[in-house]
Amino acid sequence: MVHPVEGAAPRRAGFSVTPAAYTLGKSRLEVFLYPDKTAAARDVEKLDTLRVAPRGTTVNWPVAPTFVRSANVVAVFFTESQQQGERLGLALTAGPPQP
Q: How far apart are CA 11 and CA 15, in angstroms?
């Protein structure tokens, strides 16, 4: 079950927009919604997407983050389940339903 996190989500280093944060069981999802894919690309090109941190820096996340980007959406998923991380990535990168 997905629940929005109470209160304002924290700003994250390397991201120019504030995320919307959700809990999914014991996992946490942060979604960064940009005005367009160009704005998202500007932030992503400055990130180390494996560490989910500005290049040359390190962030001490509670668990290894899963980074997903699709057009103007960037999601960072904190889960100990590799399977859940893969499923989220597939769901977000599949794109909208086609006619």
A: 7
